[in-house]
């Protein structure tokens, strides 16, 4: 399945803003009450601000011109009250929407992170971690900014515009129509340019993701970069992505700013129309000075929010571009679904490959028609040249991927019919590159082990002793409480492998795969591991992938994996012969 988010983006760009908005609203369905309250607050706020000019015009015509200062004072007081109430309603909606934005950010980040936890290994093979981090952090924040700062302003501006438009038309239809005519150009201009603005912003967000991916790659590999003196090369690469980001940011900035001057120009034209046409109407006696002052204020009330709308519209386009990038992750599904067991296919082995073919992508088949049987309690070795397909075979046993064709049966049943919990209880896997989490040795060896989550240190030490692992634990200065960081720079690769080994053995799986699991361990400790493995339950099946043949001396069966094909190798000597003359991967 294609999980490459950057390749998906073109297809998804075709989705309409309406569909995107519908999905977004679903996400904030729980905020409905707060959104209504904020909407009421903003309607009140806009309504109150709209009443202002009417009161001013009325005061001029009825009290200032007649020099009735009592009336002027009274209406001044009313106006003050209107503006103070407007301030409170404005503050209320800002507070409410600030909360909505933060809660949305929280929900969204959780939703994306949970989705990332659901997705299969192929997804992570096809996407760079830096880009994913940028989507979780940067894109969600852009959406939050729109919701907490712009959405209600956006709605408020529209309400003010509509209200002011109604006042303008009802005071004088002709003058109103003339005043509003430039707005038609604004609407047409906005409709025509919005897709282009969104595209420019999407490009910019993509380049932020690219830059983040580049930073992540160089930080992850800084030792190699320093050892190979590749700092200049990485500086150059970073410079390139930074340059792309700079250019796309300039492009997005230009696109984002295009509305402001155009809206400004058309607003000024509208005010000029009001002034000239209004004075003409006063001269011919069909308009009063007070009405003209109100009129100019309403024209300002119409065009000022329209100007603001230019900036808000841009913020909306940025938010929609971000939402598209977030949705791409949220809409993905894991293609490794649980299926019904196909009862027509049986197996008497613990694990069996039946005519299995596999390719990582459609381009090249990696495994061709593999038939393998792993029986209970036996030890199997997979050997073969680099790139021959050993790790791929082990990955299929752990269901990191599904076979493209054929069947893999675990305990006689389709491996795809097990829940992840059932499967991982039966199958343990020690990876070529063990990964440790920040915490202690104890945290790491109990990782994913539901049986021992609540044991005390003393109980765990006893369990470790019973599993013959105490000699391994003794290698760590502070035993179970030895501190580990995710980067694990404070312990050696061999020590990491020992922790991974203890982690896997303590889970007591029925089938344990060791993929080059002892490659970095000295021979004496390796013998210790071998004796621990020998003492595992008689029922445990071992699958050992190794380049060093001494590690597989005790195997009951040796398979030679080369160029995506698997054959029985017979004895250790025959295996060695196959390795020596074994053809390399084409
Ligand atoms: N994630 C991946 N995406 C695409 N191709 C892959 C991926 N992982 C491995 N391959 C390809 O699959 C083939 C088999 O690789 P695999 O890792 O299974 O070999 P191996 O026998 O375990 O090698 P080694 O002894 O070096 O660990 C190689 O050609 C490799 O390039």
TrEMBL record:
Q: Where is the ABC transporter domain?
A: 351-585
Q: Where is the ABC transmembrane type-1 domain?
A: 36-317
Task: Please indicate which superkingdom the organism of origin belongs to.
Answer: Bacteria
* Any single GO CC term annotated in Swiss-Prot or TrEMBL for this entry: plasma membrane
Q: Which InterPro entries match?
A: AAA+_ATPase, ABC1_TM_dom, ABC1_TM_sf, ABC_transporter-like_ATP-bd, P-loop_NTPase, Type_1_exporter
Gene3D superfamilies (UniProt xref): ABC transporter type 1, transmembrane domain, P-loop containing nucleotide triphosphate hydrolases
Q: How does it sit in the membrane?
A: Multi-pass membrane protein
Answer yes or no on keyword Cell membrane: yes
Q: Name one Pfam family in it.
A: ABC_membrane
**First-listed, main subcellular location of the protein, grouped into a coarse class:** membrane
For this UniProt record, the keywords arranged alphabetically read as follows: ATP-binding, Cell membrane, Membrane, Nucleotide-binding, Transmembrane, Transmembrane helix, Transport
Output the Gene Ontology terms for molecular function: ABC-type oligopeptide transporter activity; ATP binding; ATP hydrolysis activity
List the transmembrane segments. 35-60, 72-91, 151-171, 177-197, 244-266, 272-298
Name where it's found.
Answer: Cell membrane
- For this entry, the protein name equals ABC transporter ATP-binding protein
